[in-house]
Amino acid sequence: MRSDLLTNVLSELNGASADIEASAVISTDGLMMAAQLPSGLDEDRVGAMGAAMLSLGDRTAQELSRGKLEQVLIKGDSGYVLMTHAGSEAVLSVLAKSEARLGLIFLDVKRAAESIAKLV
Amino acid sequence: MENKIDFEQLAHETRILTGFTNAHETLLIEAAPDITPHLVHVTEAFYKILHTLPKAQPFLDGRLEALKKAHLNWLESLFTGPFDADFAQGMYHVGMVHVRVKLPVEFMQGAGTLILSELISVAKEVYQDDAQRQADIIRAINGVIGFSVTIMQESYQASSLAEELDKFLAITGMSRTLFNNLALAYEN
Ligand code: HEM
Ligand code: HEM
């Protein structure tokens, strides 16, 4: 039930921009809660890796006096990984194309994270 | 941690590594009636030597009698066997007990050599008229001491790895559950 609602939020997010290729909601412990992933990506790995990155991001922001963590952005030559907290229990992880316009994606992701925070 | 270890495999590998064979096992069990009566003296000699080492005192103070009893029981078990997965698990546990009291690992290793040396004296005396048996039993005792001490060292190794991991988790802010999930995701 909850995972259906989460999946709806993710579908909406993926539909909002053609530049978003995949998205997932992960518990802060690294377990997949809902996902819209292309086949070939291992859900367990996406989940655990995303939560680990965010945890490290939290620490880094704290350690380097950057305040409360808002997002972790990773850029590879084939695109982006963007992770944000969605409430205190969940992480929203998004994969975007390399030509994506980040400003728009940040907005969509922020909105989705707020919806997710209300569900988890 | 102890329940994740394959003690069957650990026993098997440690036997190979320390040259401890089935023939040695049989010899030890056969020798039990001859050797066991002397083990009290081995224990006494062991603690007498430990008493000359100031660094060992904090580990002995106030519990010497209990320790002697535990060590004597262990010595006796070297002549009863079987040296299987259960024995390995027992030695791993004994290793952990020493890790918890923070006994330095070199004390463990050194103690193994001391006890071996005492047991060699016993074997030489008991089998003084049978040179072949003497040589065979000394090899078997060497094997079983090496086997035991090597497994106890495994506990030290595991606990120092666990300490490293704790540090890493504290630094990165990752929870133990997250780490376990990460490890599971990359298990194969
Ligand atoms: C009583 C046991 C052992 C002794 C006394 C011993 C002694 C040595 C010595 C003197 C060296 C040369 C160190 C140097 O470069 O200055 C060495 C290197 C090495 N030993 Fe052992 N060894 C022992 C057991 C083992 C075992 C059981 C293994 C593997 C199963 C092993 C694997 C190696 C390896 C891989 C190196 C090369 C390290 C490198 O790349 O420089 N050793 N050992
Ligand atoms: C080959 C070497 C050794 C063996 C096989 C051995 C064996 C044992 C055994 C069977 C126990 C009882 C474990 C239990 O409670 O289940 C024990 C406990 C203990 N041993 Fe040893 N030991 C060795 C070396 C040493 C040395 C060298 C010291 C100190 C200098 C030491 C100090 C202790 C202490 C302090 C405990 C009690 C821990 C407690 O408070 O429960 N051991 N040992």
Architecture overview:
The complex is a heterodimer of chains A (120) and B (188). The N and C termini of chain A lie close together (12 Å). Chain A is built from 3 helices and 5 strands, in the order αββαβββα. Chain A has a 5-stranded antiparallel sheet, with helices on both faces. In chain A, β4 and β5 (90-96) form a beta hairpin. Helices cover 45% and strands 28% of the residues of chain A. Chain A has 120 residues and is an alpha+beta fold. Chain A has one domain (2-119): 2-Layer Sandwich (Beta-Lactamase). Chain B is mostly helical and 188 residues long. Chain B has one domain (2-185): Globins (Globin-like, Orthogonal Bundle), CATH 1.10.490.10. Helix content of chain B is 78%, strand content 0%. Chain B is built from 9 helices and no strands. In chain B, α2 crosses α8 (131-172) and α3 (39-51) packs across α7. The longest helix of chain B is centred in the last third of the chain and has 42 residues, at 131-172. The mean pLDDT of chain B is 94. The chains are: A alpha+beta (120), B mainly alpha (188). The A-B interface holds A 28-31, 42, 44-45, 47-49, 51-52, 55-56, 58-59 and B 171-175, 177-178, 181-182, 184-186.
Summarize the structure.
Chain A is of the alpha+beta class and 120 residues long.
CATH superfamily of chain A: Dynein light chain 2a, cytoplasmic
CATH architecture grouping of chain A? 2-Layer Sandwich
List segments of chain B where confidence is low: pLDDT < 50 over at least 5 consecutive residues: none
- Top-tier CATH class of chain B: Mainly Alpha
Q: What is the total number of structural domains of chain B?
A: 1
Q: What is the terminal separation of chain A in angstroms?
A: 12 Å
CATH topology of chain A: Beta-Lactamase
Portion in beta strands of chain A:
25-35%
Give Rg of chain A in angstroms: 13 Å
